[in-house]
Please model this.
Amino acid sequence: MRDRSHFLKLYWTLIVFCLTAMCAAPPTSAATAAPAVSGPPMDRNEIINSTESCEECHAKVTPRIYQEHIEGEHGRIGVVCADCHGTDHRAMATATARFACEQCHPDETQQFLASDHSKSWEHMQASARYGRQPAAVQRQGCEACHRIGIGADDGRCDFCHTKHGFARKDAAAPASCYTCHMGPDHPQMEAYRTSGHHFTPATCASCHMPAGNHNVNGNLNRLSSDYIEAECRKCHDDAFNRQWLQGAAMLEEQGRLLLAAGRRIITALNDTGRLYPDPRRREPALPEGSALVLGEHQLYEDTSQAEKLYFEMHKYLQVHLVQGAYHQDFKMAAYEGLLPLRRYLEELQGEALLLQELAMEKVQLTPLKGPAAPAESGDLFQLTYDSSFHGVLAGDRKKPTCETCHAEGEYRKAEAAAWAPVCGACHVTAQVDLFTRDLN
Model:
């Protein structure tokens, strides 16, 4: 009897131990599994001489990219790496619209190539502001978004369709638009997120891409009238639509009148030689040269205080007015657009009066260096991460955390090249090379 009780005691002790271990063990789901670590980099000769398929090799070398492809739309239907990238490792092609996507999606490709998205690279290169920036700012700032249209009559579909997953739901999600259509000079996402539409199923794509048409020109800056009648009626009646459009057009026109008044003031100052520095003595800027430039190609730097005030009005305040009004966020239109526009025009008028009085007294203007602007408050690492491309990704799109890229307590590496294997887990070699080159 005692032997039996001893056996039962041992049995239940073992059961309790196993249950305790199971409860204490961490879950093994994909969401909590340790992040995949890329294998050692391979040189070109090793790749060329390898007998493994693309998938077999990348499952070890870039496991995150491989997993995203296998679980994505293309991987599930049997599309392989070579279908989009080719097989020549001596000159591996980027999967662009015309080179890769057109072979299976000809209609969507032609629509995209006809849109301003595919022309964005050429538009950027024609900008005087872009030409004045340091190379690192051009690459990491301007080109990061405008690269969607890089290449002669070509472009990058994976900017919206998220390499290498390509899920339609990801491309249609506002987060895909957020990475580029945000910030002080094009606050579309800010206007959308603070409008009533943000709390409804309406997304950027559902309002701006009729029937999935990838040529967004007709309904990007302004919804065409026929599209408004067909699409907006799904949620709003005609009386509401008329009131909304009339109100937005009225606010936009108010802003245009204020900008026109500002241009008249600055033109008069320029005609009498009262702008400093004088536009005719500045370094020429394409395409206008040394002429006074207001508006589209106006520079950030090397301009007078009067021109700087107008630049804020044209580039930021009027844009907030228009984007807020047409996205049905009239608070943005008023408090970040129309009302500041009026204040800035008053400041511009005051600046003009001051310059006129100084000219009458023959005062010689000389440049002064003011105090440096205070640093933005808050955790610098968190602030820069939140505003980066990594920071705005949706959480379910393999969004990297601090620990994904940085070991515990490590925020810098002794050599720029040490970042290559970390970045290479998610990015192709060309992107990694650009990043590490900027760090040197």
